[in-house]
Hints:
Blueprint: E1 5-8, H1 12-23, E2 28-31, H2 35-43, E3 51-53, H3 57-62, E4 69-72, H4 78-87, E5 96-99, H5 105-117, E6 121-128, H6 130-136, E7 139-144, H7 146-159, E8 162-163, E9 166-167, H8 177-206, H9 211-221, H10 229-239, H11 262-273, H12 278-290, H13 293-300, H14 314-347, H15 353-359, H16 371-380, H17 393-414, H18 419-431, H19 438-449
Parallel strand pairs: 1-2, 1-4, 2-3, 4-5, 5-6
Antiparallel strand pairs: 6-7, 8-9
Nicotinamide 8-bromo-adenine dinucleotide phosphate (NBP) binds at residues 9-14, 32-34, 37, 73-76, 79, 82-83, 101-102, 127-128, 130-131.
Amino acid sequence: xxxxxxxxxxxxxxxxxxxxxxxxxxxxxxxxxxxxxxxxxxxxxxxxxxxxxxxxxxxxxxxxxxxxxxxxxxxxxxxxxxxxxxxxxxxxxxxxxxxxxxxxxxxxxxxxxxxxxxxxxxxxxxxxxxxxxxxxxxxxxxxxxxxxxxxxxxxxxxxxxxxxxxxxxxxxxxxxxxxxxxxxxxxxxxxxxxxxxxxxxxxxxxxxxxxxxxxxxxxxxxxxxxxxxxxxxxxxxxxxxxxxxxxxxxxxxxxxxxxxxxxxxxxxxxxxxxxxxxxxxxxxxxxxxxxxxxxxxxxxxxxxxxxxxxxxxxxxxxxxxxxxxxxxxxxxxxxxxxxxxxxxxxxxxxxxxxxxxxxxxxxxxxxxxxxxxxxxxxxxxxxxxxxxxxxxxxxxxxxxxxxxxxxxxxxxxxxxxxxxxxxxxxxxxxxxxxxxxxxxxxxxxxxxxxxxxxxxxxxxxxxxxxxxx
Length: 469
Ligand code: NBP
C-alpha cells in the first residue's frame, strides 16, 4: 500500500509529526539523511504503526501515492536547500512539496518560484509547538499554492491542535504567507518571554522573592485573562529543584540567551517594512545584551547604580506588576498583528488576522487566553489600526497604564532594566500623543541636509536657510 504522505527529516520535529499524522489514520513514509535515525524510529515508537521507513530518497518517493505529498522537516537554511535539490528532480508535475521548517520568508519565495518552474505545488508551512506539539497537535501555518493546500487540508486539519475555535490550521495566503506569520509568531514569543523574565528580575531583585514565591504569583496570574503557555511553563521552571544542590535549578542557569532565526528576522522585517514593533525589537536586543556576559561582569564593578530594591509593599508592587505584564504582552500581540497587516498589504498575503489569532489559540508557544478578545476585536473591525484602539484593550489600558508607569519608574530607580516593559509604555505613549517632537527632527534634517519640511498651518513643502535667522 502506498503512503498518503511522506516526511523527510527524522529529528525531533519530523519524528513526532510523522507519528502524529499516523495516529490520525494515515500511512506515512519517512526518510532521514542519516539512516540510524529512521531505523531507531522504525524499531521504536513507530513499530506496528503505518509508518513506512525508506533508506534512499528514490525509495521514499516510490512509496508515496500520487500526487505525492512531501513534508520536509530539516534544519532551516542550507539543510532545506540540500534536501530540496535532491527532491526536485524526483518529483513530477502536480506533486506537492511542503517545507515545515523555520524558513526565512525570502527563501520560501525563492523555493516556491523554483517549484513553480518545475510544475510542482509548494507550501511554506510554519509549525509551532515544539516536540510536544508536533506529537499531540501543533499550530500549523501554511501558505503558498492554494491547490497544494487542498491536497493536504484534511491531513493538516486533523494533525493540528484542536483549539477552542476549531483546528489550529488554515490556509493563510499565497507566497510566503505561512512562514511570515510563523516568523512574527516567534517575534511575539520573544517579547512575551522577555516580559516574563523582567517580572522575575523585578520580583527577585526588587522584592527579594524566592523562585517558589514567584511561582505562586505566576500560578495566580495564570488563572486569569493573562493565562498562557509561556506563563505556565515559567511557573513550572521556577518550581523545579536541582537534584544535586536541592535548590531551584533556574538560579544555576547561565544568564546568556541566543537570538537567531525567526525572532531576529521578525524585527529585521519590521524595520524593512517600517512597521512599529519596538517591544519585539527590545526583546531581541535584550538577548544580545545578555550575551555580553564578560563585559557586563566587568562593567558591574565600574559603573555605579542605585540599590536594586523597591520601596513599597510587596502586594502593591505585585498588583502593579500584573498590570505592567498585561500591557506589555498586549503590546507584543498588537505590534505583531499590525506588522502582519502591513506585510499582508505590501506582499499580497490577503491575511485574515482573526484567523491568525484563531490558529494561535492552541498548540503554539504563544497560545494564551488573550487571543479570545484579540480575535474578537480583529473580527469586529477589519481596519483596526492597533489592538489598543478596541475593547477590552482601551479599558485595560485605562485600568493598568498607571501600574505600568509605576513599575517602569520603580525599575529605573532601582537600576533594573525592563526593556520590554519600558518600550511598550513608550510605544503606547507615542501612539496616543497627537503632536510628537518630530517637528524638531524635520527642522534638523532640513538644517543639515535641505530635506524640506511641511507646515501645520499651510500646504506645501518648505525649506529654510536656518543660519540666516
Ligand atoms: P533540526 O533543526 O535539528 O535539524 C535536524 C534534521 O535536519 C535532521 O533530520 C538532519 O539530518 C537534517 N539535515 C541537516 Br541538519 N542537514 C541536512 C542536509 N544537508 N540534508 C539532509 N538533511 C539534513 O531538527 P528539528 O529540531 O526537528 O527541526 C526541524 C525543523 O523544524 C527546523 O527547520 C526547525 O527550525 C523547525 N522547528 C523546530 C522546532 C523545535 O522545537 N525543535 C519548532 C518549530 C519548528 P541528519 O539526521 O542526517 O543529521
